[in-house]
TrEMBL record:
<dbReference type="InterPro" id="IPR036388">
    <property type="entry name" value="WH-like_DNA-bd_sf"/>
</dbReference>
<dbReference type="InterPro" id="IPR036390">
    <property type="entry name" value="WH_DNA-bd_sf"/>
</dbReference>
<dbReference type="GO" id="GO:0003700">
    <property type="term" value="F:DNA-binding transcription factor activity"/>
</dbReference>
<dbReference type="InterPro" id="IPR000847">
    <property type="entry name" value="LysR_HTH_N"/>
</dbReference>
<dbReference type="Pfam" id="PF00126">
    <property type="entry name" value="HTH_1"/>
</dbReference>
<dbReference type="InterPro" id="IPR005119">
    <property type="entry name" value="LysR_subst-bd"/>
</dbReference>
<dbReference type="Pfam" id="PF03466">
    <property type="entry name" value="LysR_substrate"/>
</dbReference>
<dbReference type="InterPro" id="IPR058163">
    <property type="entry name" value="LysR-type_TF_proteobact-type"/>
</dbReference>
<keyword id="KW-0804">Transcription</keyword>
<keyword id="KW-0238">DNA-binding</keyword>
<feature type="domain" description="HTH lysR-type">
    <location>
        <begin position="6"/>
        <end position="63"/>
    </location>
</feature>
<protein>
    <submittedName>
        <fullName>LysR family transcriptional regulator</fullName>
    </submittedName>
</protein>
<dbReference type="GO" id="GO:0006351">
    <property type="term" value="P:DNA-templated transcription"/>
</dbReference>
<comment type="similarity">
    <text>Belongs to the LysR transcriptional regulatory family.</text>
</comment>
<dbReference type="GO" id="GO:0043565">
    <property type="term" value="F:sequence-specific DNA binding"/>
</dbReference>
<keyword id="KW-0805">Transcription regulation</keyword>
Length: 319
């Protein structure tokens, strides 16, 4: 069956003219004449049977249909260009993976491990964009997503299959100086952990997206903590890590997200009693037809990622 597709030249002229709202600037960008750009857009309008531009005495303006179509064409052309460059760079071997990921997990856990992937599988390139909420894969260029949430949330994500990687556990962490001050110790003994009742007397850092985090931890430890809801509120784990390393308080953070701070001694685990929440990390991919197979690059990446997740607290250097 013949596909109903306009020429890429016409689409390129339309996308450029729509972006600049100018045939002249589009012609300059594409190294064409203004009349050539105009002919291509007229041909595109005749092909789709819809006016994309309004001609005025002062130039052109997008119609409502043209405005919506321009957004789609821009995304299609960017994807086509990216995939073409990836094919050229890999010469048909391996390939790219377009990955959506929650930011802190990508920055703190995945990126330090990607050099190992490059060493073991140089034919694979991972492109990463931030995405924190479920989405429809059909509306994006993503091949997979690294996502954090509950099992119930991931089962409600339509049209996907989810591979469990690891559960999320948090522990109290702070700077050595803060713990030494709280215990009136010299700095050389600051590394000795303390009990939950001591943490209850220290300044706490709150995660705004999990306002009950400290109360849940103290309840699990069986410790009364009247000030469990007090303290500076920050949104991301990465913000909590920086604030804690600066001595502003004790934070509840997954150790796997602060490997570098722990290795440098900027942060220490103040109390080694973890709290396992109901959140986990998953590799989410589009659901495939019964006779379909994932791309070879995605299959290799998925297997590699599972291997790294078996020991989530190990540092990237140890990997």
């Amino acid at each position: 069956m013949r596909r109903v597709l306009p020429s890429t030249q016409a689409l390129a002229c339309f996308e450029s003219a729509a972006r600049h709202i100018s045939y002249t600037k589009a012609a300059q960008e594409l190294s064409l004449t203004q009349s050539a750009v105009s002919r291509q857009i007229i041909a595109l309008e005749e092909f789709v049977g819809v006016a994309l531009f309004k001609r005025t005495r002062h130039g052109v303006l997008l119609t409502d249909a043209g405005h919506q179509y321009a957004k789609q064409v821009s995304r299609w052309l960017q994807g086509l260009e990216r995939d073409t460059l990836d094919l050229m760079s890999h010469q048909g071997e391996g390939g790219p993976i377009n990955l959506a990921a929650v930011p802190t997990f990508a920055t703190r856990w995945l990126l330090p491990r990607l050099p190992q992937l490059a060493k073991e599988h140089p034919e694979i390139t991972v492109h990463i964009d931030v995405q924190t909420r479920p989405f429809l894969f059909a509306d994006t260029v993503f091949d997979a997503a690294l996502w954090a949430g509950t099992r119930e949330q991931v089962t409600r994500w339509p049209g996907v299959q989810a591979l469990w990687l690891m559960d999320e556990e948090v522990v109290p962490v702070c700077s050595p100086q803060l713990l030494a001050t709280a215990q009136q110790r010299d700095l050389g003994r600051a590394w000795l952990p303390v009990g939950p009742e001591v943490i209850a007397q220290m300044p706490l850092l709150q995660q705004s997206t999990r306002p009950q985090g400290w109360r849940q931890w103290f309840d699990a430890m069986g410790v009364d903590a009247p000030r469990a809801l007090d303290g500076m509120r920050l949104e991301l784990f990465s913000m909590l890590a920086v604030a804690a390393s600066q001595g502003l308080g004790v934070a509840l953070v997954p150790p796997m997200l602060i490997e570098q701070e722990l290795a440098r001694g900027d942060l220490i685990i103040a109390c080694p009693q973890p709290l396992r929440g109901n959140r986990s990390y998953y590799l989410v991919t589009p659901e495939l037809a019964a006779d379909a197979q994932p791309s070879p690059a995605l299959k290799v990446f998925s297997h590699w990622l599972q291997g790294r997740a078996q020991n989530p607290s190990a540092t990237a250097k140890q990997q």
